[in-house]
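Document type: protein sequence-to-structure record

Subject area: structural biology

Format: plain text, a pair of labelled lines:
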Amino acid sequence: MILLKEELLNIKEASVWATEYLGKTVTASNISYLIQYGRVRKIGDNGMTQVSKQELINYYKSYNGNREVLWKNQLGKDLNWALSFDQYKEAETTKHVHRLHPYKGKFIPQLVEYFLDSHTDNFKKQVYFKKGSIVLDPFCGSGTTMVQANELGMHSIGIDVSAFNALIGNCKIMKYDLIDVQTEISRITRLLKEFIANSYILEFEENLLQALYDFNNKYFPVPDYKYKLNRGEINEDKYGAEKEKEFLPIFNKLVKEYNIKIRQDKADTFLDKWYSQNIRDEIQFVFDEIKKIKRINTQKIISIILSRTIRSCRATTHADLATLIEPITATYYCSKHGKVCKPLFSILKWWETYTKDTIKRLSQFDRLRTQTFQYCLTDDSRTIDIFGELEKRNATFAELARRQKIKGIFSSPPYVGLIDYHEQHAYAYDLLDFKRQDELEIGTLSKGQGREAKDGYIQGIAEVLNNCKKYLVDDYDIFFVANDKYNMYPTIAKNLGMQIVDQFKRPVLNRTEKDKGAYSEIIFQ
């Protein structure tokens, strides 16, 4: 088929057209992404790249235009699409400190803001919180509620049984001397580069990357390979396995030539099992330098940067980063990127990326933060004396909380049988030597979703609410975000003498790496 000239758009024209067509911003980068990953065909050569308008229409119709209808057919007509927040780009749903560190199962800040702020609409008919209110999150996780409360001029208290979760949350709302943070980052980066220079790792990686570049350009050309893949013209499993095997001798030759030690001598801990020897040495070197930092706030935030770095450096495939399967110690065909990829042999690249990103995000939040109190306590929400424990950390905040009491709760409890929260950050517990309290988690993946697990979950959530009620004002409001596929929350409310007065069912559009199917959650009030 010969395409007519008016059917073709360059990248900038496609961006303008798609923005108007969808009614939301579509950048040139978004169009380039569609070309790179074979969603639409690249027409023309570099400098004169064009796309077919009809292919764009077909793509947006299949993915965006029909999604609301399709999901409502699967999940029910009561799905509230206004709470999908699909008008926001990822950069907005992960704004400033919300992406200081990866965390499974967190909600987006726009959802918190919707229920905490002072607006009303067709769905939210009254205001529940106001400036100066105290908001409680008894399942604080990575601290999203605390951060948004701060932005809105509210105080907030978080509680989490995971010491590392509490560290993430508190680091997001902590005030820093950014000059000191940058000075320490620069010092450690300089020393890390000197440390690496004494090995052959950089030369090894440089040669390996060049070999991969040549090989992938030949057998996995961008974007032609992905375009053919998306149209079923290539058997990915067979072709990928063949090429993975074909490249392996090149990799093994370089490993032998540079005497690279792939595995550590033992595999007793997470850090032993999931990192190459060189990466493990670099992690320890940086951590030893972090321990020399005098200002505790600076030390904490740089520890978070190191944790974020080492999470990205685990010996796993790119596709399995969220759910580890087996350590990867050689080059492999990567289904995520459509080419042969390699495991990491140095933390330097990610360390430099995340240090710059963290400084930027802290600076952005500094311009938005309000002079309010936030703190996440490490404790069990079923039994904690909230005001008593807060007194030990911040007497002024505790006095305010006792006098004013807590206006309400906005939280996302764990879902039954879905995540082991300590285990998802096992690397950080190993490194920081924090005490693990896995036995205090509610609804863990390891306990499954059987009857006993569900009964234990109902009891645990009820005990949390029963304890927290003591610290709330008389006319409190509680909002729990949950995917209640087993219909447990009506039972929880009944057992407590509470009542579900409203519920908002929302689509969850952007989930973890692999799962893009129709999925919803309910905000129970």
